[in-house]
């Protein structure tokens, strides 16, 4: 059972790292939206390609554009914080109980 325990613990760690990285990508996208970056810059294109699909889905469900300020990144960051504080510890506790 220790193999399954280690696997679940590793999956929890990977999920935590991926969610943390995506949160920082969202923050970078939000900061770039305050200025007028070159849309052909590879970094700007990468940030838009990675964040646009999720942001469009949230914007369809919750139109959060108030006076030209888009609050979608804030909602996504709060969702990521919730997932990191709920799913990751739950998986780690499950892995600990299997050991």
Determine the number of helices (DSSP H or I, runs of at least 4 residues). Answer: 3
Shape: elongated
Regarding quaternary structure, what we see is single chain
Give the domain tally.
Answer: 1
Report the mean per-residue pLDDT as an integer: 92
Strand content: under 5%
**C-alpha-based Rg, rounded:** 17 Å
- Helical proportion, percent range: over 70%
Number of strands: 2
**Sheet/helix structural class:** mainly alpha
In whole angstroms, the N-to-C terminal distance is 6 Å
Question: In terms of per-residue confidence, which ranges show pLDDT below 50 for 5 or more consecutive residues?
Answer: none
Record the strand order, biggest sheet: 1-2
The main pleated sheet reads as: 2 strands, antiparallel
Q: Could you give a short description of this structure?
A:
The protein is mostly helical and 99 residues long. Helices cover 81% and strands 4% of the residues.
Textual characterization of the structure:
The chain has 99 residues and is mostly helical. It has one domain. 81% of the residues lie in helices and 4% in strands. The chain contains three helices and two strands; from the N terminus they run H-H-E-E-H. It has helices spanning 2-34, 42-61, 72-98; strands spanning 65-66, 69-70. It has a two-stranded antiparallel sheet with strand order 1-2. Helix 1 (2-34) packs across helix 2 and helix 1 (2-34) packs antiparallel against helix 3 (72-98). It is elongated, with a radius of gyration of 17 Å. The model has no long low-confidence stretch (mean pLDDT 92).
């Amino acid at each position: 059972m220790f193999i399954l325990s280690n696997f679940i613990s590793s999956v929890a760690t990977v999920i935590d790292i991926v969610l943390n990285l995506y949160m920082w990508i969202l923050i970078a996208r939000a900061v770039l939206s305050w200025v007028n970056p070159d849309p052909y810059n590879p970094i700007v294109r990468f940030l838009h390609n990675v964040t646009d699909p999720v942001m469009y889905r949230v914007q369809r469900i919750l139109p959060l554009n108030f006076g030209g300020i888009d609050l979608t990144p804030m909602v996504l960051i709060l969702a990521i914080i919730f997932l990191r504080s709920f799913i990751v510890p739950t998986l780690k506790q499950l892995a600990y109980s299997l050991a």
